[in-house]
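Good morning,

Attaching, inline, the backbone tokens for the sequence recovery test we're adding to the shared suite. The designed sequence is right after.
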């Protein structure tokens, strides 16, 4: 790496048609906050009390041509490029809560250790049995 060059994980960005609405969903799901920035094309959420750049956050970017991916993938259909995994201490309770926030349970599931969900814009995400993650002294985002 070049001397003086700094590279840090800043955020994961999800394209969507309505960034503020999708940010509200994830802020409710994670008990995070919307970080005030003066741009309606982008909305950022982060853990409570974290300022812009304090932690990696999730950014929502307006894309008026956004098409939700199909999950599981199917030939000739819009493919997902990435998905988010969330560690939870109780998968069943987390699924109920995510649905209350506006998520949907994917019709096809492939494991008892995680549940695939879709957010209100159609992005897949997983609620994963993460008891081992919460017990780790290295788990940073609480």
């Amino acid at each position: 790496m070049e001397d003086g060059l700094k590279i840090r994980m800043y955020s994961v960005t999800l394209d969507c048609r309505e960034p503020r609405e999708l940010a509200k969903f994830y802020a409710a799901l994670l008990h995070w906050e919307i970080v005030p920035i003066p741009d309606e094309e982008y909305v950022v959420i982060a853990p409570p009390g974290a300022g812009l750049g304090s932690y990696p956050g999730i950014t929502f970017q307006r894309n008026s041509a956004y098409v939700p991916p199909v999950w599981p993938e199917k030939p000739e259909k819009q493919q997902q490029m990435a998905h988010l995994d969330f560690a939870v201490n109780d998968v069943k309770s987390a699924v109920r809560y995510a649905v209350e926030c506006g998520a949907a349970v994917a019709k096809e599931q492939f494991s008892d250790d995680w549940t695939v969900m879709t957010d209100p814009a159609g992005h897949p995400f997983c609620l994963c049995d993460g008891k081992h993650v919460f017990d780790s002294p290295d788990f940073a985002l609480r």
